[in-house]
Amino acid sequence: MFGSALIVQAIGAIFIGIVTVGMFQLTASFESVNSEADFNEAMGPFLAIMASTLGVSVLIGFLGSVLQGVLVVPVARSVLNRRTGFKQMWQLAGRRIWPLLGVAVLLTIGGLLAAAAVVGVAVLLFTAIGPGALLLVLPLGLGSAVLFVWIGLKLMLAPAAIVVERTGVYDGLLRSWQLTRNNWWRIFGITLVVAIMVGVIAQIVQIPASLAATAIGGVVTPHPDAESVTSTLVVTTIISSVIGALVGSVTFAFQASVFGLIYMDLRMRRDGLDVELMRLMETGADPDGVPGSPSTPSPDASLQAPNQPPQGGQFPASPPGPRPPA
Fold first, then answer.
1. Which value, in Å, is the radius of gyration of the alpha carbons in the chain?
2. Are 164 and 290 in contact (CB under 8 A)?
3. What is the mean pLDDT of the chain?
4. Of the candidates 100, 111, 109, which has an alpha carbon nearest to the alpha carbon of residue 169?
5. How confident is the model at residue 307 (pLDDT cuts 50, 70, 90)?
6. Torsion of CA 66, 67, 72, 75, to 10 degrees
């Protein structure tokens, strides 16, 4: 889980580092602006940097949504104390990669369209009313944030359902909506506590590292010029990005494991999955599969319900002759 999360975090760290260095160089170029023409010329790269920052955020969110579905495999197998290697995890999840990509695209596009709609309405209100539109924009923004969190939690188990239950994109979203019914506040509380824990731990690790990188830059170049400042920024950005990727990998793997356990818990509460898991533990069946998936074999005849004929057949006919009294 850590290795897979590290790959995604490393990709994000590389792009963030490039954007950070580009932003620094762009800021330095603004200092030499002396006319409106120079300002308009510098605004083009500035908007490109802003668009790149948004694109990196969207890319990380997209990859994180896909990876959340992949990481549910080792979580589900660990419920039965079954180890899962890196290759085995991707082999089991790779069969569902296209639905995972589909749901990630759908959730990403839906989030972007919702945010664009809110921003567009706010711009229209400010254009039509002026500063007084703030009285309408603030409740609109707050309500939109609440609605976004509510829908996000209702749909956050879709990647897990797609991988474990082998559903399609629409069925996975519907399954997540059904599983979280009457459990939203409990899921919200767990998610909030985990987010606070992860945020505090990340800040505890990253703030001293950032201060140390800044101090090192001050010692190495006590009398900086433009070239040395750029070189120092590149070095400190690399150090911060590496530390951020390592911390982000640990925290993302932890969050993904929590989401996976929430999914398994809801399956136990609603589907009786705990009974099936106990049967798998006793029989040792399907040792290389994902517990809870449709491929799980049915229990043997000895575990069938009472008063049911074996193997779907019929009970033998009663022998002829008088019957004993009831």
1. 27
2. yes
3. 80
4. 100
5. very low
6. 180
CA distances from 87 to 76, 93, 233, 326 (A): 16, 10, 37, 62
Q: Which tokens in the block code for residue 28?
A: 């330095």
Write the pLDDT tens digit of every residue in 209-267.
777 766 766 666 655 666 666 667 777 777 777 888 888 888 899 999 999 999 999 99
Task: Report the pLDDT averaged over residues 274-282.
Answer: 88
**Cα angle 58-60-65, degrees, rounded to a multiple of 5:** 95
Task: Give the orientation angle of helix 226-271 with respect to helix 36-78, to 10 degrees.
Answer: 40
Q: Please give the single-letter amino acid code of residue 188.
A: F
pTM of the model: 0.77
Q: Residue 240 region, left (φ>0) first, then alpha (ψ -120 to 50), else beta?
A: alpha
pLDDT of residue 271: 87
Cα(129)–Cα(132) distance, integer angstroms:
6
Residue from 222, 106, 115 nearest 162 by CA: 106
The confidence score (pLDDT) of residue 312 equals 40
- Above 90 in pLDDT, residue 175? yes
pLDDT computed for residue 64 by the predictor: 87
What are the structure tokens assigned to 200, written together?
């505090």
Within 10 angstroms of residue 86's Cβ, the number of other Cβ atoms is 12
In eight-state DSSP terms, residue 312 is G
Write the CA distances from 167 to 3, 39, 162, 325, integer angstroms: 26, 53, 5, 54
Report the first-to-last Cα separation within the chain, whole angstroms: 62
3-class state of residue 53 by DSSP: helix
Cα–Cα distance for residue pair 29/319, rounded to 1 Å? 100
